[in-house]
């Protein structure tokens, strides 16, 4: 049995699209919040969690990096999903008659130019797929939703304008998480190692900690900081690097990092998505 993969949102959400693209053989399980997605996997209601972490236009997804270290789950894969935004209306609606468009807050700046050009007022909805469902239920041709092709299919809506995002490379990166870690080498585009760490309270600790990656030729593709437990003095860092912990140059870099940190925790070792390049 392929099992289930949990995602945040209603059927037709972009996370649902990611599930279909990356794990088409698994049953997609909609959840209300990111915490619910994680809990579904922890309890065994689903085998995998599909969590968005960043968008090429909007930036990082709030709260995700805070949730990952305490989730008890392990990153086992990543997915780069091309986000196409469509204007969806009820059957027979016309673009010229649309005055309002419902969507999640993060989608509004991704298609701002289109909305301004057509004089459409963007209204915030908790979820893009929910926006599509509400438009379908209201039956008002002047109200549309900004959502995926999948949402149009599920809720019986017409696509009034297709692929209206401002940037033609609009992409969201997702992480797939499991109860069990998988350190096997797999995939065709190399491996990624993700971890969190806290630096020791000594001068230039972060600078010194990062030096080991440069001197050992390890490419760090992401480094982000965020506060822990609301404290301005307790800063945790999240990092992605190219390579496997068993690679000699990665081992040396992590050993040097360990000397300047009070804590290091590997969140996952997984194959790079070919679209990362």
UniProtKB/TrEMBL annotation:
Enzyme class name: lyase
GO terms, biological process: L-phenylalanine biosynthetic process
Protein name: prephenate dehydratase
Gene3D superfamilies: 3.30.70.260, Periplasmic binding protein-like II (3.40.190.10)
Lineage: Bacteria, Pseudomonadati, Pseudomonadota, Alphaproteobacteria, Rhodobacterales
Pathway(s) per entry: Amino-acid biosynthesis; L-phenylalanine biosynthesis; phenylpyruvate from prephenate: step 1/1
EC number(s) stated in the UniProt entry for this protein: 4.2.1.51
GO molecular function: prephenate dehydratase activity
Segment forming the signal sequence: none
Residue ranges constituting the ACT domain according to the UniProt record: 194-271
Record's keyword annotation contains Zinc: no
């Amino acid at each position: 049995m392929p099992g289930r993969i949990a995602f945040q949102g209603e059927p037709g959400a972009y996370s649902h699209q990611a599930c279909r693209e990356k794990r088409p053989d698994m049953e997609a399980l909609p959840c209300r919040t990111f915490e619910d997605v994680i809990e579904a996997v922890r309890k065994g209601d689903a085998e995998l969690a599909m969590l968005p972490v960043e968008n090429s236009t909007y930036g990082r997804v709030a709260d995700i990096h805070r949730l990952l270290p305490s989730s008890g789950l392990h990153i086992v894969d990543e997915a780069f999903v091309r986000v196409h935004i469509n204007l969806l209306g009820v059957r027979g609606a016309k673009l010229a008659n649309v005055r309002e468009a419902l969507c999640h807050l993060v989608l509004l700046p991704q298609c701002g130019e289109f909305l301004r050009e057509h004089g459409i007022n963007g209204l915030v909805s908790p979820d893009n797929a929910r926006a599509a469902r509400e438009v379908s239920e209201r039956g008002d041709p002047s109200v549309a939703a900004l959502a995926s092709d999948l949402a149009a299919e599920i809720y019986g809506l017409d696509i009034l304008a297709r692929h209206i995002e401002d940037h033609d490379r609009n992409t969201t990166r997702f992480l797939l998480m499991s109860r069990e870690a998988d350190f096997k080498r797999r995939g065709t585009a190399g491996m990624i190692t993700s971890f969190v760490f806290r630096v020791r309270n000594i001068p230039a600790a972060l600078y010194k900690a990062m030096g080991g990656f440069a001197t050992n030729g390890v490419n760090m593709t992401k480094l982000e900081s965020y506060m822990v437990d609301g404290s301005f003095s307790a800063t945790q860092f999240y990092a992605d690097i190219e390579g496997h912990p068993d690679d000699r140059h990665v081992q040396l870099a992590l050993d040097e990092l360990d000397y300047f940190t009070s804590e290091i925790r590997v969140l996952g070792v997984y194959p790079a998505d070919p679209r990362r390049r």
